[in-house]
Amino acid sequence: xxxxxxxxxxxxxxxxxxxxxxxxxxxxxxxxxxxxxxxxxxxxxxxxxxxxxxxxxxxxxxxxxxxxxxxxxxxxxxxxxxxxxxxxxxxxxxxxxxxxxxxxxxxxxxxxxxxxxxxxxxxxxxxxxxxxxxxxxxxxxxxxxxxxxxxxxxxxxxxxxxxxxxxxxxxxxxxxxxxxxxxxxxxxxxxxxxxxxxxxxxxxxxxxxxxxxxxxxxxxxxxxxxxxxxxxxxxxxxxxxxxxxxxxxxxxxxxxxxxxxxxxxxxxxxxxxxxxxxxxxxxxxxxxxxxxxxxxxxxxxxxxxxxxxxxxxxxxxxxxxxxxxxxxxxxxxxxxxxxxxxxxxxxxxxxxxxxxxxxxxxxxxxxxxxxxxxxxxxxxx
Length: 381
Description:
The structure is a single chain. The protein has helices at residues 12-41, 48-71, 84-101, 106-110, 112-118, 126-150, 157-207, 217-232, 248-255, 257-274, 298-313, 340-356, and strands at residues 238-245, 280-285, 288-294, 327-333, 362-365, 374-376. The relative contact order is 0.07. Helix 2 runs antiparallel to helix 3 (84-101) and helix 3 (84-101) runs antiparallel to helix 5. By secondary structure, the protein is an alpha+beta fold. Mean pLDDT is 89; it is low at 1-9 and 369-381. Its EC number is 2.7.7.65.
């Protein structure tokens, strides 16, 4: 349970609900009370001041109950936390009860019903408002019948029925208008959802490769630059690796570009399975990828990349049973003071050595060396 006045700092939706309920109960309640009080002063409220006082003590008790229920956050337990329909039904019921005791100016009280319906125009379905409208119209007719039966001296049935007919027509108009507004609202909501999907797609394309779902080159370089700056302050160790699918052009030529795309997506999935949440893989173009392993040393990174290489080599394809997809990889850990260009150049040089030594292997670049030396892992038989 939350405390009093749960406002928008932590939950803007709850703050809006609190404001709506406060307005409906206080402003609406005061308007209703004032109209009935004027009727009582003009001697149009059956039962006089005693009935008026007891009735509105009960009504305001309900209003305050709604307010406290919302302020204490219990509305969050409801299917509709906004309480739009419960507030509408409660307001309609108390309006009808007071209308039973109001003679000659009953329609003046019932006109407040349209203000009640208006509160749900933008937040309720047309069907729900139609049910409330139908209930209000029929209940109003029942009230006329009850008053005519129990207090015939206090009612002009003909005049009441004329007023009821006018009320019926106005209710139909309001509900119809609410339906039109509801359709417009639904169309706007759908357009907003479509626009949101477009914006999400644009944002995704700005940082992701469309084919594999991996980061694209531009975003990967931006992120790697920030990682290097933190690593340069001694925050953690970081390793980069270039990975290149072996003989990928032959795969495309032999099996088609569609199959080649599947191979690229397969590599992206296998890399994602082995990387932690802080690591990432990016497609640099064609069949070349960049893998960044954060808070990792060379030995750990090499183990991860070797596992990736073995997993990829173990893949079998129904459409190409003889195909074995392999990858060559070169990795380098960051050395303090090293520029981003030199760091990546060492990883690229290690990748070149992996290719020149027969592919399907992982080569580790020595620190501060760009002379082509490095350690290559032997390829298992």
